[in-house]
Design goal:
mainly beta; five-stranded antiparallel sheet; five-stranded mixed sheet; 1 helix; 11% helix; globular; signal
């Protein structure tokens, strides 16, 4: 029991430390933060960068999420997800579990706007999807609110982040996981 409590406390401290270490800038009307990660895939290094607001409205809101440096041969999902147990944002060596559950789940009909698919292999052909821009970049809108899943509320029951993760063509690939921890108020 003590180790489980310590693990939760250590995770919360790590999220706090990561959030404090993020580069904070000024977006159009809200504070934004940036999370970065470098990965090497098949001999090519990708410097992933993810920017989004880190303080969100508990009433729910649409946020703009931008990224750059992504591998255009690998699609990603962008959305609000629970930070898995054991994952410390900012420490890729702990990224052993897929970020899940995510708000809206697999929104293939495009009705919730809670996730976005970026891919050069089909992106832009279905709702809430687009292709990569120059340099593996994207600029998308996703809807967020703290009620991430039945019985799970961000900041109360679970810790959450705006994330990218490899799409269905590489769902077990943790190389494209980038976490930007968020709070709701």
């Amino acid at each position: 029991m003590r180790s489980a409590l310590f693990s939760r406390a250590a995770r919360i401290a790590a999220v706090g430390a990561t959030a404090a270490a993020l580069t904070v800038g000024l977006a159009t009307s809200a504070s934004a933060a940036t999370a970065t990660r470098s990965v090497t895939v098949s001999g090519t290094t990708y410097n992933l960068s993810l920017t989004a607001p880190d303080s969100l409205s508990a009433a729910g809101q649409n946020v703009t999420v931008s990224g750059s440096g992504y591998n255009t041969l690998q699609g990603v999902y962008v959305g609000l997800c629970v930070i898995p147990e054991g994952v410390e944002p900012g420490n890729p060596s702990t990224y052993t579990s897929r970020p899940t559950p995510c708000l809206g789940g697999a929104d293939q009909s495009g009705t919730t706007g809670a996730s976005h698919w970026v891919s050069n292999l089909g992106g832009g052909t279905v709702a809430n999807s687009s292709t990569y821009g120059t340099g593996g970049s994207f600029n998308v809108s996703v809807h967020v609110n703290p009620n991430i899943a039945t019985g799970k509320v961000c900041g109360t029951d679970v810790d959450c982040a705006i994330v990218t993760r490899a799409d269905h063509t590489g769902s077990s690939n943790r190389s494209y996981d980038v976490y930007l921890p968020v709070t709701f108020s």
